[in-house]
Amino acid sequence: MNGRLKIGITCYPTLGGSGVVATELGKLLAEKGHEVHFITHSMPFRLGKFHKNIFYHEVEVNDYYVFKYPPYDLSLASKLAQVAQLEGLDLLHVHYAIPHAVCALIARQMVGSQLKVVTTLHGTDITVLAHDESLKDLIRYAINQSDAVTAVSEDLIRETRELLAIEKPIDLAYNFVDKRVYYPRDVEKLRREFAHPHEKILIHISNFRPVKRVLDVVETFSLVSKDIPSRLLFVGEGPELSKVHCKVKELGLLDKVTFCGKQDDVAQLLSLADVMLLPSEKESFGLVALEAMACGVPTIASNAGGIPELITHGETGFLADIGDTEKMAAYVKLLLNDEKLYETVKKACLHRARTTFCNERIMAQYEEIYYRVLERELPEDLTNKLTCLG
Ligand code: GMT
């Protein structure tokens, strides 16, 4: 291909939306013909089988006995520099300011300024870590010294600027889904295993951290199930899981709730559902709601962080104040009791996911940023694509 780039990607490979987005982006870039090197402490969980143009470099941490804390960050910085030099990388695209951007900056100093650093902010690296006085200056430094910085929502850009007094431009690059993976699957047979034909299915997928407010999911479902025969699927695991279990039991809902645990084929499970619940306290984007949207499943969410940039209230889902489970339940009932409204919202979800948040659009945006920091001319096909995507 014309203008082939050699890109190093570092992310948290085992959990969370940031790792998913980083991995999917790497796969798409490789598919297009770029050379992609994942440099992480373990194999990114969405990488799966062998892919042409993708290489994996494991960061091994030295646990020499005098180290109270094994120096992962230094091992990563050193590995980034080694791979960059050996493979002649053009740039490092690192996901999360701390520690990944800082490590990439060290690597750039070791290798030379021809190695560019692109940092993507995902959320908690700002919304949680930038409140920590011991890290704040380091995060600001990492952002200011990166050759380009992107964030997954306008809300995250605003918060980054406010919290850290950043003046440097930050590019907006929304999260995306691969429409070849996330689409409404035919799950009629499987659906019968989870619910009776007259029952509706609600779903919640998360890492069950306190920020997800999973107890609100249980309360919302409890209110809905009083009026609408329904079932709730929980997908994922995390620190709040046992509290959630207790609440389900306390409300006498055990026979209506299924805990699926961690699952790989999320698109399949999403396609089973009628509605997704995402009542988070904070969400810089809410990738899981986009995955649901792409499968034609509307989300009822909290009006928090970047969620309103993804979900337009009344059009592609419904938003309520954080903690307002009565309102959330009312919106679920409104949608599930009105077939025409449901179909309209579903159609709008599919359209939005395939346009604003489609993989081609977002990948082209990232590529444009890569060529910009490298001060290279955009290949003609990319210029055409960007013009055509608008
Ligand atoms: O909170 C999570 O679900 C995990 C976290 C992560 O680090 O992967 O998610 C953050 O990044 C995602 C991908 O950009 C966003 O979709 C999530 O909204 C964001 N989480 C928060 O802001 C709490």
What do these coordinates show?
- This protein has two domains: 6-176 and 358-389, Glycogen Phosphorylase B (Rossmann fold, 3-Layer(aba) Sandwich), CATH 3.40.50; 188-355, Rossmann fold.
- The longest helix has 17 residues, at 16-32.
- It is built from 16 helices and 13 strands.
- The strands form two sheets. A seven-stranded parallel sheet has the order 3-2-1-4-5-6-7, sandwiched between helices. A six-stranded parallel sheet has the order 10-9-8-11-12-13, with helices on both faces.
- It is of the alpha/beta class and 390 residues long.
- β11, α11 and β12 (299-302) form a beta-alpha-beta unit.
- The radius of gyration is 22 Å and the shape is globular.
- The chain is 46% helix and 16% strand.
- The model has no long low-confidence stretch (mean pLDDT 94).
- The chain binds ligand GMT.
- Ligand GMT is lined by residues 16-18, 21, 122-124, 127, 152, 175, 207, 211, 282-287.
